[in-house]
Amino acid sequence: MPGEKKSLYTPADYQACLARIDKLTADSRPQWGKMTSGQMLAHCAEVQEITNGKELQNTPLLVKLMRGMIRKMVVGDKPYPKNAQTHSQFKQTTDRNFDEEKKHLLAALDFFVNQEQQEALQTKHPLFGKMTLAEKGWIGYKHLDHHLSQFDI
């Protein structure tokens, strides 16, 4: 179907993401941005865990006031811009162990795709509130795709 969004809930899309993650190495270099591959994995795991229900801390008032606009950008079809600002909780500035962060991300993704649908629907995003499964599956895919593309994978 034309225009259909990809989703981590779609087995083929999920498996494609896992295969792309598997191609990433500790020596992979970004096409843009400053994160190492280990830092990118840690960043993606933290973002995924927030969607999974982890608390989002220290959100600036301006971000809270702009949540509707931010949600439209996140859920929308347009790709994320390169070098876009991120929430302070997602920033990665210290060295990260690639293998540990890969396991961390894979565990967060596994939890997401295997969570009972009813429980997933009841888990509100701490910034965006209630989201449909289609929205959650899409934003998970879109974010991973953005960062895997950052590393040309």
List keywords for this structure.
153 residues; mainly alpha
Structure description:
There is one protein chain. The protein is mainly alpha-helical and 153 residues long. It has one domain (11-150). Helix content is 55%, strand content 0%. It is built from seven helices and no strands. α1 (11-23) packs parallel to α7 and α2 packs parallel to α5 (98-114). It is globular and about 40 Å long. The mean pLDDT is 92.
Write the topology of this structure:
Elements: H1 11-23, H2 37-52, H3 61-65, H4 67-75, H5 98-114, H6 117-122, H7 133-150
Oligomer: single chain
Spatial extent as radius of gyration = 15 Å
Element order: H for helix, E for strand: HHHHHHH
Helical element count? 7
Helix content: 40-55%
Straight-line N-to-C gap: 25 Å
Mean pLDDT: 92
Count of the separate structural domains: 1
Question: Structural class, judged by helices and strands?
Answer: mainly alpha
Shape: globular
Low-confidence stretches: none
Note the beta-strand portion. under 5%
**Main beta sheet: strand number and arrangement?**
none
Secondary structure tally: strands: 0
